[in-house]
Write a structure and sequence with these properties.
mainly alpha; 0% strand; extended
């Protein structure tokens, strides 16, 4: 069970690092993406989120074996 918590907090830390770098390096691009997200229908955002989550799960599964 300790491995689960270690992996979870490592993953969350990496998400924060990546998001932080995006905000630091491309603040105007992040603003444009947020504005674009406001114009998209909820179903499109939901579908994109599910696809991203599925791809992420497949990627982790492939890496972790």
């Amino acid at each position: 069970m300790d491995d689960f918590w270690t992996a979870l907090f490592t993953a969350l830390g990496l998400v924060l690092v990546i998001e932080g770098l995006l905000y630091a390096l491309f603040p105007d691009g992040v603003k444009r993406m947020a504005a674009l997200a406001q114009t998209l229908p909820a179903e499109s955002l939901r579908r994109g989120g599910l696809i991203a989550a599925a791809l992420g799960a497949v990627f982790v599964w492939m890496v972790r074996g």
